[in-house]
Amino acid sequence: MTETSPNWHTSTYSGADNDACVEVADNAPGVVRVRDTKDRTKGEVTATPAAWDAFTAFARAHTA
Fold this sequence. Notes:
- The protein is of the alpha+beta class.
- It has one domain.
- Helix content is 20%, strand content 30%.
- The chain has one helix at residues 49-61, and strands spanning 9-10, 22-28, 31-36, 44-47.
- The chain has a four-stranded antiparallel β-sheet with strand order 1-2-3-4.
- The radius of gyration is 12 Å and the shape is globular.
């Protein structure tokens, strides 16, 4: 099995003023990677696509 290099992009769920930026890479089968745009040295968090979908649905529903 070969590792797919993350194709990072700024999440559409980041703050409008770029004050809460996260990057997401969802190009690998079965995994979504998330990292802090402003401090990439902190590493990344991984989730299944289903868990990421549930999280973003929750965030959309609870955004003021």
